[in-house]
Design brief:
InterPro entries: AAA+_ATPase, ABC_Ni/Peptide_Import, ABC_transporter-like_ATP-bd, ABC_transporter-like_CS, Oligopep_ABC_C, P-loop_NTPase
Largest sheet: 8 strands, mixed
Distance between the termini: 24 Å
Membrane topology: Peripheral membrane protein
Strand order of the largest sheet: 6-7-8-3-9-10-12-11
GO molecular function: ATP binding
Keywords: ATP-binding, Cell membrane, Membrane, Nucleotide-binding, Transport
Structural class: alpha/beta
Protein name: Oligopeptide/dipeptide ABC transporter ATP-binding protein
Bound molecules: adenosine-5'-triphosphate
Helix content: 25-40%
Shape: globular
């Protein structure tokens, strides 16, 4: 997917009004990883709200903090990470302050996660029908027969071929793509209000990836679920995300409605990510920063300044504002790129 190739015709219309109360409100989330002598701040005050039914793409390079954010939203940062600040307000309650039994009730019922490597998620000793049904029995409190009926229905929804037969299959009898569909079925069977998809299709071949992504987007819309869709591939988010947040070094660098992000990207880091997927040598030359061009940036300035091709002295000295460039379009930059 290249920036040059993306036009508004490629993008489905917006489905979500942003004026209602958010379903999920992440406020100033801070996560540290303790080290031998000091700790490293991996999330540096991330704030992001998700409207009911909205699909938000979260993109960034490896190490940006995407998985740490996904897991911290659920109150379980990857060990030994610790949440040291902020709130995650979901349906009016701060998830991070809930007692563990309450949290467990929410996870799987109102909040669901789809992760890559589905085989690791599935129990190898249980048929997939029983595994999916178990989710409904635990979280919806339905009996075994009704749970199996729901499981068969959701297997049909995720387009597993011959679902009646697959109900009795074990995980090792499924292809990687089919196993991922089963994990999606488990995530959706309780009609969650919010789904986190963390790089869910990485490791699958490209054709299967695109089928599963379109399925995930369509099912989230059918179920009215909001979704945080995490990926390293910014191009994917053009197809079905309503808004896109760009994460770098544990901070949101740019947040925008999809059209704005692809047609009028403002942060040099976003331009670098788009250039990496572009076929335009001019775009790549202007915005790509080779690995050897990376420099450490002083903590008091912009964290991207050391890699930024348009950085000025002020960028290393002063924190940039998270400025609203146009309605709903924000960039953490002293010199956001103008497309006038
Ligand atoms: N177990 C750990 N111990 C110490 N630091 C960690 C640990 N796990 C992650 N980190 C730090 O947190 C940062 C963010 O990691 P995270 O896995 O959230 O990034 P990511 O954007 O999801 O990357 P990827 O796309 O590769 O999954 C890393 O750069 C790393 O420095």
């Amino acid at each position: 997917m290249s920036q040059a190739a993306v036009t508004s015709e490629h993008m489905p219309p917006h489905r979500v009004a942003t004026a209602t109360a958010p379903l999920v409100d992440i406020r100033g989330l801070e996560v540290d990883f303790p080290g031998a002598s000091d700790s490293k701040r991996v999330l540096k005050g991330v704030s992001l709200s998700v409207q009911p039914g909205e699909i938000i793409g979260l993109v960034g390079e490896s190490g940006a903090g995407k998985t740490t954010l996904a897991r911290s939203i659920l109150g379980v940062p990857p060990a030994p990470g610790k949440i040291v600040g902020g709130e995650v307000v979901f349906e009016g309650r701060n998830i991070l302050a809930l007692p563990e039994p309450e949290l467990r009730k929410l996870r799987g019922r109102r909040l669901s996660v789809v992760v890559p490597n589905p085989r690791a998620e599935l129990n190898p000793t249980m048929t997939i029908g029983r595994q999916i049904a178990a989710m409904a029995q635990i979280h919806l409190g339905v009996g075994r027969k009704e749970a199996l009926r729901l499981a068969l229905g959701i297997l049909r929804d995720v387009q597993i071929p011959d679902p009646e037969r697959r109900m009795n299959a074990y995980p090792h009898e499924l292809s990687g793509g089919m196993a991922q569909r089963v994990v999606i079925a488990m995530a959706l069977i309780c009609n969650p209000a919010f789904i986190i998809s963390d790089d869910a299709t990485s490791g699958l071949d490209v054709t299967v990836q695109s089928q599963i992504l379109s399925l995930l987007g369509r099912l989230a819309a059918d179920h009215g679920s909001a979704m945080l869709f995490i990926t390293r591939d910014i191009g994917i988010t053009a197809h079905f995300c309503d808004r896109v947040a760009v994460l770098y070094g544990g901070e949101i660098m740019e947040l925008a409605p999809r059209e704005d992000l692809f047609l009028r990207p403002a942060h040099p880091y976003t331009l670098m990510l788009l250039a990496a997927f572009s076929h335009s040598p001019a775009l790549r030359d202007a915005w790509s920063v080779p690995e050897t061009g990376r420099r450490r940036t002083q903590a008091k300035g912009c964290h991207y300044a050391g890699r930024c091709p348009i950085a000025q002295p002020v960028c290393s000295e002063k924190r940039p504002p998270f400025a609203e460039i146009s309605p709903g379009h924000f960039a953490l930059c002293h010199f956001p790129v103008s497309h006038e």
